[in-house]
Write a structure and sequence with these properties.
The structure holds two protein chains of two kinds. Chain A has 19 helices and four strands. By secondary structure, chain B is mostly helical. The chains are: A mainly alpha, B mainly alpha.
Amino acid sequence: MILALLIIVLLVGAVLCALADRVDRRVVRWTALIITSVDLALAIGVATLVSQGPIVFRLPWLPSWGASLHFEADGLAALMILLTTVLGVVAVLISWEEIERRSGAFHVWLLLLQVGILVVFLARDALLFYLGWELMLIPLFFIIGIWGHEDKQRAAFKFLLFTFGGSIFMLLALLYVYVRHLNLGMGGTFEIEELAKTPLSASEQWWVFLGLFIGFAVKIPLFPVHTWLPDAHTQAPTAGSLILAGVLLKTGVYGLIRLAIPLAPQAAEAFAPLIIALSLIGIYYGAVVAFAQRDFKRLVAYSSISHLGFVVLGLFVGNAAGYQGAVLQMVNHGLATGGLFLLAGIIQHRAHTRNLEVFGGLWKYAPAMGAFLLFFAFASLGIPGTGNFIGELYVIAGTFQLHHTLGALAALAVLFAAAYSLKLFLSTMHGPTARPWRAFKDLHIHESVALGILCVGLIAVGLYPKLVTQPLYFPPDRLVPTTGRVPERVIRAEAARGSLSSVSRMRSKSFSLDHEVVLVSEASK
Amino acid sequence: MIYADGTPMVWPIPAFALLGAVVIFVFSRWWAPRTAGKIACTAVGISFLWTLVVAAHLLGSGARQLAIHEPLWTWLSGAGPVDAKIGFYVDRLALVFAIIVSGVGWLIHLYSYAYMEGDEGERRFFGYLNLFVFSMLTLVMADNAFFMFLGWEGVGACSFLLIGHWYQKSENCAAAQKAFLVTRLGDVFLILGILICALLVGVDYTNLVGFDKVRELPQVDAFGHLSGKTVLLIAGLFLLAGAAGKSAQLPLQVWLPDAMAGPTPVSALIHAATMVTAGVYLIARFHQLFVQVPELMAAVALVGVLTAFYGATCAIVQTDIKRVLAYSTISQIGYMILGLGVGAFSLGVFHFFTHAFYKALLFLAAGTVIHSLHGEQNIFNMGGLKRFLPRTYLAFLAGAASLAGFPLVTAGFFSKDGILWSALTTQFGSVPIYLLGLFTALLTAIYSFRLVFIVFFGEQRKEIHPHAPSSLLEWPVMILALFAVVAGYLNLPHAFGGGAWWEHFFEPVFKEAEARPLVHDGAKELLAAGASGLLALVGIAAAWKLYGPPARRIVPEPVIAAGEIQNDTPAPYKSPLANLLFAGWYFDRLYMRVFVRGFKLVATLANLVDNVIVDGFYELVALIVRGFHALLVFFQNGRTSRYALVMLFGAVAITTFALMWR
């Protein structure tokens, strides 16, 4: 029931926002804030409940086709809806001042966008999944097309055409599996779990996987189908960029995990080398092209391509380290890149430009903004203490287990991340002041709160990554690949310690902390 | 903060520094700027005091405890080899580093309090400084390599921020960026090295003893059937590369001279006493790995001695007082690495210990000089400062003497001589390495006293009226000067009638890994010490001859008249050799042309490819679709006349076609 509530609250909120628009802009904002906060509370509820087993909600929908409204949350889905709802609150906060025109409509679309995303994350029915998938497109199309920047309509169309084009292949693949399932006399059903049981030949799997992969790769986006992303990001209003980077791109990865790999597992394995190659290319390509950008938002957009490359790489190296790293990176990228897009919007709102070449020395005017940009830039380059480090480390470790050279290549990419992240920070905040920014104000309170939420999230994951990796084991071993090679240590720790005869361990019970005491052995005295 | 069994907790040591940073960052904007400095000094002071409490517990009379291991909570888990806790491990090695970091750090904090008065970014400065001390303490006190890496990157970030402290000058930003990127290149190798170690034995320091078992393995399956020894060699080289990045060793040394763009206390703390010695700590910490492979030890020793030589040759012609000291730091860390590479781990650490005092002192004294001359950094614009800054002069003299290795009375003599003696006599040492080290000692004496004679002796070369420094700028320097002289007696060798206390102190840490001299001959050891002492004296005499008041001209002579030289002059000397040394053997220029420009070119090209080819493809598709659209629009525009026309053409075409077919 709680899963249905998650969506109903948003739908009711959308209606309320539409009504509140007749009263005042402020009422709309507060309504949206309250609605998204309630949703966040519900998502936290889901995340805590999910440790006791999957939460299921099912209603009949189109029984003749075998489709039902089947929502189900396990650990991974809970994480994703938590990310979505957190960013939902942040998106409302950041649009507080920015959206002046047709505020009611904007918030309606914003809430509907989240509905689509939540449906995608929760659906266990392929048709429902597809419905949610297309439902995400329309609100974002309008958000970019109406509230975007100078070249908004072109960017909105490009976004729509790319993702819609991709999703046709996805639909075809799904329908093919559906028909096969039906023809084999196994009954017509869109239940993903049932569809996964369809015995497909290797070549059938190949085609099915290809279709699904094209759909998801466009969304992620993987090189070379990424070119809609920089345009969409650059033109979207801040909240749009935030949701786009923060969760929308993850739906592609999520689709790979939920649909593509379970429906065509052998093909997934066969495609793995190609996908690993594409994601490695994407990591470097995104990072290098990001460095060449002059537009703040374009730079961050290309960095997204690089980061998402890490996610897909982790997913396809096929071991527990890589998989956990991939999910960690999904969360961290949502928070860190989200933060950078917020700052891009905040700065653009004040300076009326995104051109990095005319900035410089902004720290003098806005030290708090500078501090946040510093934090998110460092998070983006993977400084330890933030979640990004953990995610990248896990992915690199997973890749390293698969193949040492590939692991080393993935590690070296971090250097390029440092190059563009530092460029972003230095050319904005440091250096000589290029222009006399008269009316350049530091952060408002709602902006600080929005950025602060993301900061706290990143540090929490950075110091206690189990927040993210623990839920992946709800239910245990359902999603974490167990087939991958998980190497034992060459020399076991216990064996090594055995030679340290002088170590004795003492635990003091009166304190919660444990400590070991290494005593001088008689021999060494 | 004490366990039930009387062991003091160790987490408060870094925690206080972190607390200081957080308080400054969050609250100090509502307080007077000076408050930030007070908070920072207090925080590090408490850290230092607590370090002393821990030290007293571990070293006090009757203490049977060698180390405190304090795991706090699980950090990385469930991902194969990546498995680590957040936790602290303080053994004697970590303790020595922690004492230097918090102790010397505290003195430098006090100095900075006076030095940074009235600076625009005072609050920010002290916040970063505290954050740095926290990160550095984490680096040396972590109980596993992954957590150490957190501190390792943290100090890098703080270094970046503090080099760029005066952020409105573009060259400072460039220097900061360069420092971060070059060290990060090393860090990439470091993390790969750590990953290999994680796969082999795990990253907890208590597991590192397992490396000797790895060496025995004929093949390690996880690494494509390489032999255990080869895997260890690769891992060790990666760690060495990481150390070279952070500790400014060849070939990644280029960032350190530029890093002097930061405020002088930063140069003293980060770029002389503590952060740049992280590589020394790393190698000392992983000594169980390094001693397994003789080739690896040779590589370490070679990097060390070559860097020592490189740094000394460059230092000898620099014109900026801070750049002289920067190159000297590169050179001295080279000695430390050399010490580690020849197996004298405790002596390498000992040189770190003495160097921290005398180099911090030299930087702080240089800072006082710069401060009193209103920002003048060029030594050829100084001169005769002995009269104006007598206490600073004495302190600087003590530091320079220690750096030069003035025999018997300075700490630098004993620590450097120990390394050279080991380079000659341990199983990893060799005569060429020893001779190069010895020659470098001569150069060291020359360049350190070149500074003393040019800056403090002779006539004032430029009309500058120095003002007297405040007492807080002087007494931390005096304390450091004291240690720069006496710290050497901690390890008075047996040949000098001492007990080599330091080496015994580290026996539980390095155990049998520490290479003992193969020659046990007190007379020979005295002879070697005499040789290096004599060389130091010769060097000082040569410096007096070349740069002292009697010298008529400065050799090698600058092209531009002394007093007119600007710091950014690319080639101030007549002699091409001097200019080569001045420019750091042109490493910087080479890297700039090959890597930096190359990367920028690639980035521009990639951007072009993305816009024109990749996106162009989709644009082309869109264009073709639009072409069809235009075509159809022509046929179907809703006008009868157009339809009639099309029908006519169609009829004609079909008829023609039908006729021709027949």
